[in-house]
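Researcher: Here's my situation. A collaborator sent me these components and asked whether they could plausibly form a single complex. I don't have experimental data yet, so a predicted model of the whole assembly would be a useful starting point for our discussion.
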Amino acid sequence: AQKVTQAQTEISVVEKEDVTLDCVYETRDTTYYLFWYKQPPSGELVFLIRRNSFDEQNEISGRYSWNFQKSTSSFNFTITASQVVDSAVYFCALSEAVQGGSEKLVFGKGTKLTVNP
Amino acid sequence: DAGVIQSPRHEVTEMGQEVTLRCKLISGHNSLFWYRQTMMRGLELLIYFNNNVPIDDSGMPEDRFSAKMPNASFSTLKIQPSEPRDSAVYFCASSFSPEGDTQYFGPGTRLTVL
């Protein structure tokens, strides 16, 4: 069965520090997708990135970057020069193919990031 | 474009009462997912529809929970009778299959059962 592990329950940093959130996954599928979502204190779940299993290129979007390594089954997320507004719970998720043509997400437990001024 | 719309945003009810949560999909999406978030269990999938058909309801806790999609853009999740342990945030999400498409989440409904 699919599984996503986010070993860091909580991380606290000071503004402008870089921070990396770890995500390790388990799957037997050869085709799968990985996601990161952000849940700020207001509670909504905000999509950040989707990655398919055939694309191991790292991705950068502003201060955010993602490192996908199939060899270690990891999909880590780095925030450069963190800001107070980055404070949130971050979830890593793995898609699981299901009958019917779409997919079911399996979520990690989340990492709560606090960025202090 | 409007995102996923959920109502109500907050619901407080007493044990034994019926609760109905509502969700409107993003226009053009054809897959609908209901999730529940609690501190103890995190985010867990309750049920999933594709083209209005329930595909996987293995996450529905018990017979007190039921979900429907009366049309392609709208879904309800009903709890009858409600119990205090049902207190949680309920999210719905929509996506457009084929596989691997991103699920976009609604703002959630915070349910409190007293």
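Model: Some features of this prediction you could bring to your collaborator: The longest strand of chain B covers residues 42-50. Chain B touches chain A at residues 30-31, 33, 42-43, 45, 48, 50-51, 53, 55-56, 89, 91, 93, 95, 97-108, 110 (CB under 8 Å).
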